[in-house]
Amino acid sequence: MKYHQIDRDLFIKNRSKFSAQMKPKSVAVFNSNDIYPIGADSTMPFAQHRDIFYLSGVDQEESILLLFPDAPYEHQREILFLKKTNDHIAVWEGEKLTKESALVVSGIKTVYWLQDFEKILFEMMTHSDTIYINTNEHYRASVETETREARFVKWWKDKYPAHAVAKSNPILQRIRSVKESEELDLIQQACTITEKGFRRILSFVKPNVMEYEIEAEFIHEFTRNRSQGFAYTPIIASGNKANVLHYIENNQQCKAGDLILMDVGSEYANYSSDMTRSVPVSGKYNNRQKDVYNAVLRVKNEATKMLTPGTLWKQYHIEVGKLMTSELLGLGLLDKADVQNENPEWPAYKKYFMHGTSHHMGLDTHDYGILTEPMQANMVFTVEPGIYIPAEGFGIRLEDDVVIQETGEPFNLMRNIPIEVDEIESLMNS
Predict the structure, then answer these.
(1) 245, 189, 207, 187: which is closest to 385 by C-alpha?
(2) Cβ atoms within 10 Å, residue 276
(3) Which of 50, 116, 341, 423 has its CA 20 to 30 A from that of 325?
(4) How many CA atoms lie within 13 A of 194 on its CB side?
(5) 254-272 confidence digits (pLDDT tens)
């Protein structure tokens, strides 16, 4: 891994939080992700399942974590299973975790090779009544590939039909959504790397540059700062392409006078950042672009202030809609009749701002969090309003990542990333 080793105390705390919410005499099992094939002998780069990483720090394939807080013996309460390493694997694939190094990474003393999993699980199941399975219940999830976790669930149901079933995900949705201080530091590091990438491209952007060249500048800066790369597929959208919310081709030439919407974030140690900025190709916004830009910025700043403990996600978005409606009236994009006659299910402002303003962020870019429950301190949210005007050939979105505080306004993890019009123009023309 490119990132610095994380203190295992974080993973010890995370396991303790999860185990404290398990039912009596229950076992929980967490599997790593597969390495996914492309064709022939080619594969996708490995990306660890966020849940096993969150609970163990183990960042390699073919790994299993077993938790059994009520096990008869202390050494059975936390168990790691790893693919057995040897000199041949070390030569061909690189160093893998040994039992000793796994302890250093995770704080788990009991480590077996994967070949012993079924035997050890059988022993644990004879002492337990319930097993926690880790299904994906994220509100945005759309999974078509059968995962290693899903294969395990099918195997387990056939092998142990008499045991009760519980779900890990509701526990993880709550505990992962509230970040430990170590996690906030890791997210801050990801945001700082993103800042370096953004500052790099401000001096690089000019008329006729290609969108993919800007993407290349970002990944260069991310990699040289110990990032594995983009936290999500980057959007580099110039001109009217900015009005395609998930435009990822990044293959157009940036023309003089246009804006470039860049929705880009680096990852660091599997933690995400998520930034959006809209900058002028020629280094200066025209008056109309500036007016729309500042309207979006005002909505972002006022929306940020609403992110406090106790806020409900649904009501928050209603209030942001009111802010946006006011700005769109001021820009002449809506009139009073549009608002008076609007459909409450799809308010008038949605014509120009059709997506949500905020989502949880952390190990996943769209991270865990139960949207029907009040916001809490140390949750991390994006704030990303936008105004999209196809008829005028541009769209603007601005996005920062913020941490909810016990009192006062949220702490902006992207506070050092330029966002004011004057600062961006100054840096682009220096």
Answers:
(1) 245
(2) 22
(3) 423
(4) 33
(5) 999 999 999 999 999 999 9
